[in-house]
Amino acid sequence: DVQLQASGGGLVQAGGSLRLSCAASGFNLDEYVLGWFRQAPGKEREAISSISPYDGSAVYADSVKGRFSISRDTAKNTVYLQMNSLKPEDTAVYYCNTRSRGIDYWGKGTLVTVSS
Q1: Averaged over 46-55, what is the pLDDT?
Q2: Which of 3, 47, 92, 112 lies in disulfide reach of 38, CB 3.0 to 4.6 Å?
Q3: DSSP string, 71-101
Q4: DSSP codes of every residue in the chain
């Protein structure tokens, strides 16, 4: 079974950094795109970054470009989201996602709270 486990959230001051991890099982990272999404209170879920299974190339939303960096460790089958220069508006529950055979799989979210 495809499973995703996100971790690494927490409370951080504005300007600080956090690194989120998404451990994948049931598939290999070189098979499917893996993405990070977030959902802030009262807002819709937002796609913020994804990493290609073929060459590890990354895509970022404008809201995080230049501050967040996605990477992967294929030996650990884990994708990371390095978040720098965090802002209060980055406060949200962060989820990792992949799609396999037309089915979306979501990890349990991890809460990131950025204080001003």
Answers
A1: 95
A2: 92
A3: EEETTTTEEEEEE-S--GGG-EEEEEEEEET
A4: --EEEEE--EEEETT--EEEEEEEESS-TTTS-EEEEEE-TTS--EEEEEE-TTT--EEE-TTTTTTEEEEEETTTTEEEEEE-S--GGG-EEEEEEEEETTEEEEPBPEEEEEE-
d(CA 47, CA 60): 8
Quote the CA–CA distance of 3 and 67 in Å, as a whole number. 27
What confidence tier does 33 reach under pLDDT thresholds 50, 70, 90? very high
* Rounded distance between C-alpha atoms, residue 58 and residue 35, angstroms: 9
Alpha carbon distance 109, 22 (integer Å): 10
